[in-house]
Amino acid sequence: MKDAAQLAYYGLHSLQHRGQEACGIAASDGMTFVSRKGMGLVTENFSPKKLQDLNGMHALGHTRYATAGANIIENVQPIMVRSHQGYFAVAHNGQIVNADKLRIELEMQGSIFQGTADTEIIAHLIQRASGNLIEKIKSTAAQLDGAFSIVVMTKNTMYAVRDRYGIRPLSVGMVDGGYIVASETCALETVSAQFWRDVEPGEIIKFGKQGIETYLFAESRTHNLCAMEYIYFARPDSDLEGVNVHASRKRAGQLMAMKDNVEADIVVGVPDSSLSAAMGYAEQRKIPYEMGLLKNKYSGRTFIQPLQEDRERGVKMKLSAIRSIVEGKKIILVDDSIVRGTTSLRIVKMLRDAGASEIHVRIVSPPLISPCFYGVDLRSKAELISSRMNVDKLCKWLKADSLKFLSLDDTREAFTKGLCTACFDGKYITSLHGMEQRL
Ligand code: SF4
After folding, report:
1. Which of 98, 179, 329, 372 could disulfide-pair with 433, CB 3.0 to 4.6 Å?
2. Cα(270) to centroid of ligand 1, in Å?
3. Do residues 127 and 79 make contact, with C-beta atoms less than 8 angstroms apart?
4. pLDDT tens digits for range 196-255
5. Cα of 420 from ligand 1 centre, angstroms
6. Neighbours of 318 (CB within 10 A)
7. How far apart are alpha carbons 10 and 42 in whole angstroms?
8. What is the rounded CA–CA span in Å between residue 227 and residue 362?
9. Mind listing the domains of the chain with CATH numbers?
């Protein structure tokens, strides 16, 4: 479609919450391939002039949030590959759990890697496989284990691929006679595209001159969308597997409220991802919902910044309590999750310092007890405070008046039945290929 890179830019901008470390766009006019990448945000990297250089009818963009591989320019996507059949570009969301084994095998066969990200393994596997490109992609996808939503772009064709468990989302929309594939439907809305459908688990959709072709690369396919997509990651205006994120978070808040009877004056949500759940909780219990915490719009998300020092500084920069609202009040504080506990600890202190008389913390997800190997930065059991402390102990540590978590059953009820919940129950849906030694 016309000015594809511009559309990719707007789409990436709406997906900025999914990764803020780096970004890139590759574009093709059917003859040549151009790619621009950089560290940092989309708006920092793409000026109108840079976008003009990215000419063509096809474009592929990516924002990076590193869970595998270092934060270096070589790992920034799309990864460009020159093969004897021409250039192709690869962008990937997720994490490949058998990456180490595949990388060793590829290196033994002579592959030379530029970076350390698992996306490069995907590119090498495609390059080395035999047959036409769809056969190459099929055989590559069949060898990968773990979570992957992948888009491959050649000079005139796109391929959208989703792992057989459907862990990461991938949606397709239609705009101006063309197609757009994105991790979240909010990107489709941004470019005025109409949602068509999700890429199914284990499916490859080819968008080419002849129109659309679909292929399956796995016999057994299940729906195990990452629960944290609903709880934390996705934008409230996105629909995941046909379920609106805001509505499902609100439902989670209502389910939490139905089993709660603590007395309170106001309900306060931690901006931004907990506001929908706080509204649901307040509505259900008929307690006023108030804006007791204010978010500084100009600070990044604390959870996905890679270094601990940055995270801690980030909490202070990000939130402040509104004294006139919270002073002397018994507060229900709704938050989406507790990872390391440091953010919750600071928020409770912040509200206490602003004069709150009681703080009852309600977490609209179960305690996080196991690492994620599928593309979310929950790297080790040791950093997850709920793996070391039970609810009572954690409540004391947070200096809260009470603490409750949403049950696993209510989490499934609020979001969707087919979920990955491994970080809450330790039941991984794939083999971990030795990565579990980290547990
Ligand atoms: S382990 Fe947790 S964070 Fe990782 S994919 Fe599953 S639900 Fe999502």
Report:
1. 98
2. 21
3. no
4. 999 999 999 999 988 999 999 999 999 999 999 999 999 999 999 999 999 999 999 999
5. 6
6. 22
7. 9
8. 18
9. 4-222 (3.60.20.10), 244-417 (3.40.50.2020)
